[in-house]
Structure formats: structure tokens, C-alpha cells
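Inputs:
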Amino acid sequence: MKCNEISDKLSLYIDNELSPEEMQQVEDHLNSCENCQKVLDEYKNLISVLQNLPEEEPPEGYCKRLHEKLLMERSEKETKRTSKIKSFSRSKWLKYGSIAAALVLVLLVAGINNLGNMGLGMKAKNESAYDMSSEQAPGQYFGGAAAPAVPMEEPAMPEEAEGMAYDDSYKYNRGEITYQSNDSIVTTSSTEQREMKIIKTGTIYAQTEDYDKFLSDLSMKVSSLGGFMESNNTQVYQVYNEEKLMYGNLKIRVPQESFYELVDYLENTLDVRRKNINETDVTKEYYEKDNKVKNLEIQEQHLRELFEEATTVEEMLLIENELRRIRTEIDALNLSLSDINDRAKMSTINLEVEEVMTPSLTIKTKDSLWDRSKAGFINTVNGIIRSVENLIVGIVSSSPILVPAVIICIIGFLKIRKYWKKRI
Amino acid sequence: MNTNERWLIEESKKGNIDAFEQLIKDHKKSAFNIALRVLRNVEDAEDASQEALIKVFRNIKSFNMESTFKVWLYRIVVNTCIDFKRRKSITAISIDETMDLGSGREIQREITDHSSNPDALIERSFDKQMVNDAINMLEDDFKTIILLRDIKGFTYDEISQILDCNLGTVKSRLSRARKRLKEILEREMKADS
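Outputs:
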């Protein structure tokens, strides 16, 4: 063995870290090589010096400062611990958060499987609720209708009686409300029955192939219903292939109970393009005015009595003046009342009829910019919804792989963190 | 690990500072000296060694008795001191390096010549001051391993735990460190004479 090989091993030789064979080799060499023996002695000398090197004393107050730092550290530790009790530590958040997330994912999978059924269930529920309400509603009114049969001896509850009479005039027929005017006065109670005052108006725009035939048929129908044509504005609006195309603006009045019959008739005979039906309840307005009239009449009566007792001309003039004012007011109110009555009794239909060559001769207009952009927008939204749905479906369908993967990742992450912590 | 130490560790885990101070009583000075060797500045040495000891206190709960407390403590001390030095980017090491870079090759050749020179056969004894200075001139890796082995007397196995490396690395590194230290000393002595 050469000297430089030996010198590499001297360090280990000193520390007794060589294998017995190597030890022997080195010893053999040392015995024969004075130079290497010297080097070994130098190493031994160096190491003994190192072993006996005096250690520097820490500066004064070192222990005191360390003690203070330790106290600080402990108080910090304690505050940390108390805050830990109050709120989760970060790692715990991570731990429980990930468990919660995994649970949510699992529940999501289970939930989505049942979602279809759930949706159906909800729909069914809604339907039943709807049925219930439609079943219940007439029942309520029947109850109300039955109530007036109970003899009411005391006229002390006019409000209630009124309410019941109000209900009485309702008749349910396949969800459509038709009002039957009831002019008779309820005899069980001294209070007058209120009649519903509903003004029905309809605006219909329609096309027909044969205007003249339609018009004569319509007149017959209207008069058979007990109505009349209030106005008829007919004109030629176009001459097409020597044929005159007519346009009519008609105003028809029919008794309010026949209103819907006429609307149905028009819808059957014409190609209705636009229909607008309006029902305005003016009951309140009507009776307010009616009451006003009654009050005024009482006032008038009173004034008349006063007038007869009047002695001076001045008094007479004053009362006469007042009487005139009241009479004017009563007249005005009566006028509007009769107008309401008239309009409520006789419904109005404004009819626009256009004669065309074929009923559906309309030029299909090109979609406007707005329509096209609307369609585009709807398309995009639908696309987004579809892709989100697809994404959810994708996530859910891959969740059997995804969920364990996420859990493994979290566990791995925690392990690595722990390992690093351990290393400090 | 004796029962007293075990008890002190348990007490320290509960936050008993007196017990902890008792536990580190014998190591405080060593910790300071290691820091001083690495950082070569009393204030920095105090800061670094105290930081290390606080770290020991802070993390004593995670000490699981796998290694001895002493080994665990020195591991923290050594790592903290090296980190501290890196943080402060103390230029001491770079001064050494530039020195080495500048004339390293020459020195080595000189030393090799020296050992083959019959004059070198005269036994030299190294005095303490020279050795002290020579240690300070060592690279950090060599410095720490010499500190741990020759000054603190740790076994090879303990050193491998403290430095978190395998036994082979400890052997070769220690061997090289001693050789390097001897070279520095021989160079210095030659320069003196």
C-alpha cells in the first residue's frame, strides 16, 4: 500500500473506524514507513489540541437574556394554545375541511343520482297543491253561498252579509269566472246586495277572406245576442286584381253575459291576429258614487224641509242655492252611474277586420337585428348551461376516481407537511 | 438517556422553563461556541445560539426520543447557525474562498512538496492559538464536522444524525476536513518561519 492511500485512512485509523483488515494494513505500513508515522503523530497531536481547546464563555447576561426569551416564547405558546381552543388551527382546518369536502363530493354523487326522482317528486307535489287550491276554492264559495240561507235576524252585521252576497255572485266554471248579474234584493238581510260592476272590453284585430259575408253574419249574431253595432266604419283599402279589399273598424256592444260567446264566435269565424280582453272591476267606484248620491239625496230632503220653514228671502235664496248645487252634483253622479251601469251591462268589442286574399297572406318579415341578437344570446346561454351540466356530469361520473384521489392527495400533503415540521 | 433527563424533557414539554434550563445547562455553552465558530462574532453567536435554543424549546413537543436529546439539540443548533449565517450573508466565508481561489492550487502543491521533504519529518506540535485560527479558516462543512467530532467528541453515528447524512459521507468528510486543517496549519507555520 502506498503512502497517499494510507494518509487517506489515517483519520479513520485514529478513530478506530477501519475494518480489522484495513487496520492491519495500515499498522503494517506505519511500522515500515517513518514518514507516515510522522503524519499520524501530527494528526494525533492536532486532535489532542482540538480536544483541549478551551471553550469561550458566553457573554455576561447570556443566561438572563435566554431566560427572558424563553418566557416570551412560553407566553406566545400559551396564547397560541388558547387561540387554538377558540378556533381551529390551520392544519385542523385543512384536515377537517378536506374531510368535509370529500363528504360533500360523496353526497353530491348520491344526491345527483336521486335528483331526477326528487325533481319529479317536487313537480308532483306542486301539482297536488294546485289541485287542492282549485278544489278548495269553489268549496269556499259554495260555503259562502250556503251562508245566506242561514236566517239572519239581526241586521247588525251588514258587512258580513255583504261579503257573502258578494261571494254568491261568483260562479266557477272550469276556472273561468263568469258573473251573473243578480238584481234581486236579498231578503234575509235588510242590507242591499251589491252587484258586481265589471266593465268588459275587447280589442280584436282579425283577417277574413270574405268581408261582406262576415259582416252580415256578424250583424245577425249580434242582434241575436241582444246587442247592437254601435259604429261601423268600412272602407276599401286596396284594389287587388280588380277586386276590392275591405277594411272595417267596428264597435259592437253586447250584453255582458254574452261577451265571451261573441269573442268565441269571432275567433271561430275570423283569423284573429291580435286579441286584447280587459275586465275592469268598478264595483267599488260605483257604490262609492251611489252612496254619495244617497247622502246627497238625504241632504236635499233635509234642505227642502228647511226651505219650507224658511221665513226670510235671504234664507230662501241661500237654501235654494245650496239645493241647486246638490242637485247638479246628484245629476252628475247619476249620469256617471248610469254610464257605468251601461258599460257594465253592455260590453264593448272594438273589432278591426281586414279583408285578405288568403287568410294568412302576410309577408314574413326578416328577423330584426334585435331578434337575431336575442336568439344568439339565448343560444349562448343555453350553450353555457349545457356545458356546465356536462362539466357537473363529468365530475360526478369521475368522482369514484376523483374522491379517493383527492383524499390521497390531502393525506400525502399532510404527511409531507408533518415530515418538514419534524425536520424543523 | 437517564431518567432525570427524561423527566426534564417531559417537564419542558409542559412548558416548565426551569426544567428546560436545567436540561440545556450543559449544552448552552457548547451551542454558543458552535455559533461563535460558525459566525465568528460574539453578538451574532449569542443571537444564533439563543434562537436555536428557543427553537429547541418551541419544538420539544415533537422530540420523540428517537435519537438522544443531545443529538437532536445539536442538530438544531448546527442548522440554525448555518441558516443564520446564510441569512446574514456574512462575508467571512467568501473571504476564505477568495483566498483559496487566489492561491489554493499553489498552496496545495507546496504542501505536497512539503510532506515529501525530509525537513518536514521534524515533528511539529501545534499550539492552541494557531489551531483556533486555522479552524476559523475552514469551510463551514469541514468546520462543523471537526467541531462535532474532535471538539465535542460525538461518534460517527451521532454526527451522521446531526448532519443528516450517511456514515460514508461523515467518514470521508471528516478525513478531508482534518487533512485540510493540517494543511492550513502547515502553511501558516511555514509562513511564520
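Remarks. Residues 116-191 of chain A have pLDDT under 50 and may be disordered. The two ends of chain A are 45 Å apart (CA to CA).
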